[in-house]
Amino acid sequence: MKKRAALHNLGCKVNAYETEAMARKLADAGYEIVPFDETADVYIVNTCTVTNMADRKSRQMLHRAKEKNSEAVVVAVGCYVQDAADALREDHSVDLLIGNDNKAAVVEVISEFMDEKEGAKKTEMVGSIAASRSYEELGMADAGEHTRAFMKIQDGCNQFCSYCMIPYVRGRVRSRASREILEEAKHLADLGYREVVLTGIHISSYGLDIEAPGENRQTPFADQAETNTYLLEVIRGIAGIEGIERVRLGSLEPGIMTEEFVRAISEIPEICPQFHLSMQSGCDATLERMKRKYRTREYAEKCALLRKYFDNPALTTDIIVGFPGETDEEFAESYSFTESIRFAHTHVFKYSKRTGTAAAAMKEQVPENIKKVRSGRLLELDRKRQEEYAKSCLDREIEVLWEEEKESPDGRILVGHSREYLEVQAPAGSFEPGSLSVCRIRRANPDGTVTL
Ligand code: SF4
To answer: Considering only CA atoms, which residue is closest to atom 1 of ligand 1?
Structure first.
């Protein structure tokens, strides 16, 4: 009888990619992959530790698995394991602990444990992530939705923003070999994916750790210009693969946007003109306490650069409101700077304390009701900007990658996304899901979507 394995993913796109890669390894090893709410012989939870809430959810999913089948092997994997292995060792729901640099061994670790099941004690593979120097290759993941596939190209982060645990659980920057990236992109094209989204923990650092043959670098890491060269090489490589029509870049830092880099990517037709430039605050004093590596003036310059080389690019971002010490004046500064950039979409987060970070220990924590008011104001601004950006695409020719049909208040519709990542709607049957077409937008909807 085939053994049944169920996987649950928590957290970011990188985690989702890794969960797909682990599922693929288990399937290749003969497991039947079943939904997490079904009874299985093995349950795997790829955990997250970005907030205290994420920790709680990770524990909940592990306990739920054991409740589902007390005979099953429950495997805790990833970021929460990397940070809280001691606590998990005492948790009777968990049989195996796998850290962030041992996911490739998931099949072997489980079968070893199963072979010795009787009296087997809890097994763990949780290495010191800070010491990891090479990228852990997980093989192909087929991590995609409809025609868009996510591909992990890098792990780790060297930034140490004051509110973030990620560098402590994901380790230093480690870049995936461009050969592996191109091989997976080719595989995705063969599977019919037309768009590849490059993702990682900090893709702006891709190449930072790569040392060219014979290069005897003084410091362990390259400078930004050199780093950009490696990322450009990967982007050009993927763009050159037959069948790949679009290359979309995941979350980026302003520092990567040098004039050379922006000009170079603007000359690659497959590059999607949607750039998620993580900002976090529009106030320099707050950015300083966040230990972010740029200030608002530089940020505005990078946005202007993207608008110089791309026609009406969609600039999107993340903003944290209620960061410790954020006064009304600081928030007002952040708000008016955000207003001035005219983002196509802003993801608004209320600051959430993460024990163990410098920010969690900061004195002036902002009350929840204040955070609520501030996020409400930014969400209102975002709603206006989304509609404004949708309107700026009216009567323009835009290319749409059609994805799926679904029911809507207006009946059955076909949905797709433009290169700017605008959601485009058309009557069902207008085009084939998976096909690309150039269309003219007729209507912008209040929710930021557009209709042919
Ligand atoms: S850049 Fe900052 S927020 Fe992003 S993963 Fe690195 S430390 Fe965390």
So the answer is: 159
